[in-house]
Structure formats: C-alpha cells, structure tokens
Amino acid sequence: MHIWDLERVNIQLDLNFLDEINRKIKLKFKSKPKAYKKIFKKGEIPYSTFKNILKKSSMKSFFVPLNIYIRIILSLEISLELLEKNVIAYKTARGYNYIETPILPIKITPIFDMILAHNISDGTVINPKKGRLPYFGYRQFDKHYRKLYIKKIENVFGTIKFKKDYFDTSTRPYCPPVLSSLFFSYYNLSVNSFLSRSARIPQKIFTKSKKHLLAILIAFVIDEAHIDSTQITIALKNKLLVGDIKKICDILRYKSKVTYRKGEYEDYGYLQILREGMKDFYKDYLQLKRKYPVIDLGRKGNQIESSFKIYSRKIYKTKGNRKIIFDILGKEQLSVNQLANRLNMTRQGIRFHIHNLIKDKKIKILDKSNSNWVYSV
C-alpha cells in the first residue's frame, strides 16, 4: 500500500527533494506563475498557496496536502514512487499527531492484521465531529499491552509523534486517523464493523498465510483469554465472532472446541483451545515472536508456561499434595493463587484440597476482604 492510498494526507518532504522540484519547475515552466497556470485550473487553489508550499521555510514548519504535490510532481514527470521515497513525515489533514521516519510503502504484515484484531476484540471506533476521520481507540488496562499496541502500529507505519505521552495514565491508546482509515478501506469496513455484538473477522483474512492467522489469534488471547492449566478460554458475547476464531484454530490445526450455555450467559460463545492445541499454539507463537518481537504475550505467555510446568513436576497426580498444602499453611498465610504458583499446581486442584482441609477442620479462612481468600492453620 502507498501513501496515496491513505485518506486526507498532509506531508513533509526532504528539503533536497524540494530543491529538485523547484529546479525542475524553473527548467520546464521558466517561472512559478507560469507553472501555476499550467498545473492548476483557475480557482482550484490560490497562487499564494502554490508559492508557499514550495518554500523551505513552509516545509520545515507545516504539513502540506499530498494531493497538491502529486499534481505538481506528475506535471514534472517525476514518479509517485520517488515522491513517496522522499516523504519524511505525514499526518491527517487537521490532525495533531504525525508519523515521522515513515515506513513506505506500507506492508500488510501479520502485525497489520494483529492491530486490526486488537480493535475488533477490545477496540472502539471514535467518530469525531463532522468532517473528521474516525479512528481506533484500544481499551487496555495493562500498561505493557498498551505500550505494545503503539509499538505494533510503529512496526508497520513508522514512529508516531504524539503531542504528549497519554499512555502512562490513559487506558485508551489510539491509532491516528490517517492510519485507522487504511484498515477501513483495505478490508472494506465501516464504523459499525467494530460493534462488540456484531463484529466479524473479515473473510479476506482467512485466505492469508498461517502467520497472519496466528497473529490474529494471539491478539484475541491477549485481550479476551483466560488461561488455565488445561486450556485457553475465550468468552465473547458474539457467537459468530467466536465461530470465526474457531475457524482460525481449525486452519492452524489447534485442537479446540466451542461451547454454549443456557440462561444468563446464553448470548455468549466459549472457545476452548485444549491442552494439546495450547502446546501447538505456544510453540508456533515462540517461532513467530522471533521474527516479530512486538507480538509478545506478556503475562498471558507466563501463565501458559506455568501451566506446562504443572504437568512436569514430580508430585503431580501423586499422593501427599494435601499434606504439603497443610504443612505450608502451618508456616504461612496464603491464598489459592499463591499456593498454586508455589507448588506448580492447578487452582482447581488447590481448591479441592483446601475444601477438604476446611471440611476436616484442619485449616480456616483467615481473610475474606477480597476475591483471593487467605487461608491458615
């Protein structure tokens, strides 16, 4: 994809290239007034605008409309590709944040599709005042994942210069409109394509390589998954979208299943990537991460790794686990999660033993002040 495929783009050019444009204008048209009359029809743009955008002082201080420069360089028989090569920064017309040292042309990598998946799973489309382009906002409370979201955008497009660092305090990093618009046009999407109850993975994606599909699945694991020792569970109030994710698992040959519930949660779909599928998923993830470090699973990856350790420990599925828990609680006051991490056991297994130890009146609940109850002898 090229810079002219984006909407409402303003650019800054390399000043040496600007010198070359001015030199060619003089050679071909003899003067700027004559060039202006040949290139633009009467009333299209003021002559003062044409004259100013060719000045170095203006180029240093302002962004100029790409469409005007395209007209100029084509009249000089300069290729669009050479123009693109000399773009040093760009932004949305009337926008504040801009992309510097841009990566052009834009490549549709697995990271591009991963950004799209983040915005399907935990994103919102911000539709500003009339005449402004909509853009993505990504709701994420984990600071590590927030930072990675921006790094993924920069991996595809180039460094984003924000007016300030929003994301140490704000939980909603956003993708500038000039970039967000490309996702809409490339996949023929609208603002309504990202509504939580009706969003779908574009059909075009299912024809892509396994790397693209894996990157999308990783995004959903980061945003929506619960990790346990036996499986990865993704629960969404959108059964069709769950079906799309299941289709990705099937193409990647990850053992998985979809379940539904009745009653209060009947609108939800539950995708379970089962233990064997989880192993294959994690192996493929590590391989893809070597090429694209920004896909990092973070704490979710740590949870998956920890789940594998449970099955390699010597006392897994052996007698004596209850006594080990009892002995530890005789020395320390711990929660189920703390015991599970200490012993490399499942939380379900710990809860089973805790229940029986309480039933036998060997331990007691010491603290119920939060969801992680603390136990002691």
What percentage of the residues does DSSP assign to strands (E)? Answer: 15-25%
CATH third-level topology of the largest domain: Endonuclease I-creI
CATH class categorisation of the largest domain: Alpha Beta
Give the count of structural domains. Answer: 4
Share of helical residues? 40-55%
Number of helices: 16
Model regions low in confidence, pLDDT < 50 over at least 5 residues: none
**CATH H-level superfamily of the largest domain:** Homing endonucleases
CA-to-CA gap between the ends?
Answer: 65 Å
- The secondary-structure class comes to alpha+beta
The outline comes out as elongated
Describe this protein's structure:
31% of the residues are buried. The strands form four sheets. A five-stranded antiparallel β-sheet has the order 2-1-3-4-7. It has four domains: 3-93, no CATH class; 110-193; 203-301, Endonuclease I-creI (Roll), CATH 3.10.28; 321-376, Winged helix-like DNA-binding domain superfamily/Winged helix DNA-binding domain (Arc Repressor Mutant, subunit A). Strand 5 (123-126) and strand 6 form a beta hairpin. The protein has 16 helices and 15 strands. Helix 14 (321-329) crosses helix 16 (347-359). The longest helix is centred in the C-terminal third of the chain and has 17 residues, at 275-291. The mean pLDDT is 89. The chain is α+β, with helices and mostly antiparallel strands and 377 residues long.
